[in-house]
Amino acid sequence: MKDMAQTSRLAAVTGASSGIGTAFARALAARGFDLILIARRQDRLDELARELAATHGTASEILTADLTLDADLARVEDRLRAASTLELLVNNAGFGVGGLFADSPIAGQDAMHRLHILATLRLTHAALQGMVARRSGAIINVASVAGFIVSPGALSYGATKNWINTFTEGLWLELRATGSPVRVQALCPGFTCSEFHDVAAMDRTKLAPPAWWCTAEAVVAESLAALERDRVFVIPGFRYRVLVALVTHLPRGLRRWLLVRFARRSGRLRAK
Ligand SMILES: NC(=O)c1ccc[n+]([C@@H]2O[C@H](COP(=O)([O-])OP(=O)(O)OC[C@H]3O[C@@H](n4cnc5c(N)ncnc54)[C@H](OP(=O)(O)O)[C@@H]3O)[C@@H](O)[C@H]2O)c1
User: Fold this and answer.
1) What is the CATH number for 215?
2) Into how many domains does the chain fold?
3) Is residue 272 assigned to a domain?
4) How many angstroms separate the Cα of 180 from the Cα of each of 89, 135, 233?
């Protein structure tokens, strides 16, 4: 147990109420971080905070927020801007919607852009200014293997994750160009066991065979190990590193043919 009077390290995790976010919170608590836990489901965050306090002596602050709403996002931004000891921000909150773009309700597409792009943009800015001034800190933006691929049946998902990859790589370049020791990482998982596919009403068995599914814990372990080495793109799992290398180097015509076949098999083209 930690002595609560001592100055502790502080990390903030969005989407901490399940899946990869919960795994980040647990891994960071085990490394001695106190936490700002952010998501909509307060009961889940309360339960996690109790668990981390009992297991690691972690002090958790809970921010219940829907990051697609302007007022909630502004409240979280203000908190991060004021967090003068913040060492790590994990922009992890996210979700998927399948279906043909033209058939999908625009509200879900709009919310995805707000969460993956606007919230990542604004929270990164709120945290980064202090980190750059203190010459210390790191930001992990959770993107996806889908960010390297145009995905029929999940257009906005691939496009918003592609934005996260480009944005994070750009930040990495700016920080290196200015000699800043602050680190940024785009974490690009493949299929990971979490609530993600339940929320998106996707059939896991149609997406990939069991060997292609990672645990959230393994994804987080690779991310945190790679942060030590200042790797900008982190693709957990050998299979996915090979897949991304192949897909991004295939002739464009062949890549498109394969993507259409995969989209048909996955059942993602049905309207949701
Ligand atoms: N699972 C995969 O196969 C996979 C693969 C690649 C990338 N990813 C990415 O990994 C990240 C985490 O996903 P996951 O797999 O851990 O899925 P998950 O278990 O469904 O977790 C998603 C988290 O995001 C939070 N969230 C969703 N909408 C929110 C909103 N409007 N405001 C605030 N928080 C919100 C959820 O909390 P509340 O519902 O309590 O708000 C939850 O904590 C996402 O960015 C996802 O795109 C996942």
Assistant:
1) 3.40.50.720
2) 1
3) no
4) 17, 6, 18
Is 47 inside any structural domain? yes
Q: Residue 195, SS3?
A: coil
| Range 212-228 burial, b when 16+ CB lie within 10 A, else e | eebebbebbebbbebbe
Tell me the Cα Rg of the chain.
Answer: 18
Tell whether 219 is covered by a domain.
yes
- Ligand 1 lining (C-beta closer than 6 Å): 14-21, 39-41, 44, 65-68, 92-95, 115, 142, 144, 189, 191-192, 194-196, 199
Q: What is the pLDDT of residues 100-124, one digit of tens each?
A: 999 999 999 999 999 999 999 999 9
State in Å: Cα 83 to ligand 1 middle.
24
- The alpha carbon of 66 and the centre of ligand 1 are apart by a number of angstroms equal to 12
> Is the residue at 148 inside a domain?
yes
Q: Active-site residue 240, yes or no?
A: no
**Look-up: residue for tokens 């959770």?**
142
CA–CA distances in Å: residue 97 to residues 104, 151, 198: 8, 12, 11
Tell me the pairing of strands 60-64 and 86-91: unpaired
pTM of the model: 0.95
User: Which tens digits make up the pLDDT trace of 5-20?
Assistant: 445 799 999 999 999 9
